[in-house]
Amino acid sequence: MRKVLVILRLVPSSASTNTPAALPPGGIGTTSDAAGKFTFQDLEPGTYAATTSRDGYVAARESLRQIVTVKAGETADELKLKLLRTGVISGRVLDSDGEPVRNAFIQIRPRT
After folding, report:
1. 63 and 52 in contact (C-beta within 8 Å)?
2. Where are the domains of the chain?
């Protein structure tokens, strides 16, 4: 997939990598090429959390929070991020008389 934004955020060494709130805001980003490949160069050694996004797609569960460790003088090339195409749900909310209900709150949850 091409033209996907990939963002790396340095995970503080004192932070738990299992807690989303542990990630600092910001980060560095790049865009994938026509073959879906991307490269970050001149990174400081450390542990990074990778995220990805593209309009019309969401990160697959296994790609929600990819952690990669960069060591001095080494290349970390094992990072694979997967996106899934999003879908659409639409409808109408009607009262018992068949009249539209304005400002109704609609919520969906994944089936467990």
Report:
1. yes
2. 5-85
